[in-house]
Amino acid sequence: MAISGPAAVGKTTICDRLISDFAGSIHRLVTATTRKPRVSERDGVDYYFLDEVEFDEKLAHDSFLEHEIIHGNKYGILKETLLDSNKGGRDILLNIDVNGASSLKQFCHENRSLKDRVKTIFIKPKSLEDLRQRIKARGSESEEQIEIRLANAQKEILRARDFDFVFVSGDRNSDYKKVKNFYLSSKSNIKL
N or C: which end of the chain has fewer CB within 10 A? Predict the structure, then answer.
């Protein structure tokens, strides 16, 4: 299951709760980034934090299923990580941008062992002003970064129709219930 949406709509919180509540049947697919870790983030758990040289070397060796530059940082799904995760029999959870979700669906469609096994969710903000307040509350982005994230959010929202399940973010509990119910209703079809 791939969860997308603009920065600060609550994707990470929802993913953390799903992993906690369904520890035996779902696990997070760790993606790679050149972004600096936030205070609570750990390498290999939240992301594989790579420097530009490491990322570019993996890119040159065609190691990524998809990669994007988002908010000035590089992100990508390592093919090996996805294929290895699929062998465990547990459902896979990704917190991913809209372009990554599209590439993931295409890769899964073309790969026999993954074909038709990915479900995508898009979480829309109530408004751009609500999103601005959520980003500011995180306290980790400058005003310039906030403006970049808001501009990206406008573009991302236009792609929401490409997802299997779309909803407008409310509060943490109601958002989680929506995602949890979608997961449970489609669980028999998702082994990503």
Answer: C
d(CA 170, CA 172): 7
- The CA distance from 75 to 27, in Å, is 19
What's the CATH number where 106 sits? 3.40.50.300
The full DSSP string for 95-128 is: E--HHHHHHHHHHHHHSTTTTT---EEEEE-S-H
The answer, yes or no, to whether residue 124 has pLDDT greater than 80, is yes
Output the pLDDT for position 154: 96
User: Can you give the residue range of the structural domain that contains 79?
Assistant: 2-189
By the 8 A CB rule, do 27 and 90 touch? yes
pLDDT digits (tens, 9 = 90+) for 46-57: 899 999 999 999
Q: Could you tell me which residues come within 8 angstroms of residue 15 by beta carbon, excluding any fewer than 6 positions away?
A: 3, 28, 93, 95
DSSP, res 43 = B
Separation CA 94–CA 117 (nearest Å): 13
